[in-house]
Design brief:
Elements lengths: L3 H13 L12 H9 L3 H23 L2 H17 L10 H25 L11 H4 L6 H12 L3
Helix pairs in contact: 2-3, 3-4, 3-5, 4-5
Length: 153
């Protein structure tokens, strides 16, 4: 069994060991942005890893569809890294990234709304001719409309 003196000697020796044994402090967003601007792909990856959960969580609340969330998240990070040189305060990366997310979400919602207004939205099922036909339409006419629906375009 080790004596108190031996334990103190071990503790003192460990205290004198180089800093390399200690876990490095995580880099700040500012440091990662500056490294990414220099072309460091691992810094970009670290920024994505750090902020992906927040981006996906907010996008999910705004859009709902998981497929759209993944697509939007990729668009957001792509736009962020393409425009990284325009970020005036690297320490403000998170806020800037979330602003990109909000803007891209707004554009996506506007586009969906416009497509829906024009009848070009393919994410919701189209109404059948039979379903929108006049309620006073006879059975023969309804059968004919159903047949028209089945004809390939």
């Amino acid at each position: 069994m080790a004596s108190v003196v031996q334990l103190r000697e071990v503790a003192a020796a460990r205290a004198r060991e180089p800093e390399a044994r200690k876990a490095p402090e995580p880099l700040s967003d500012e440091e990662l942005v500056l490294r990414a601007l220099e072309g460091d792909r691992s810094a970009e990856g670290a920024l994505v890893q750090r902020h992906a959960r927040d981006v996906a969580r907010i996008a999910s609340r705004l859009l709902g569809s998981q497929d759209e969330v993944e697509d939007l998240s990729q668009d957001v990070f792509l736009a962020a890294f393409e425009g990284l040189g325009r970020l005036s305060k690297p320490a403000a990366f998170r806020g800037w990234l979330l602003r990109i997310l909000i803007n891209k979400t707004r554009m996506r919602i506007r586009k969906k709304r416009m497509l829906r207004l024009l009848g070009l939205d393919r994410t919701t099922p189209d109404a059948t001719l039979e379903a929108i036909a006049d309620t006073g339409l006879g059975a023969d006419a309804r059968v004919e409309l159903a047949e028209i629906e089945r004809v390939p375009v």
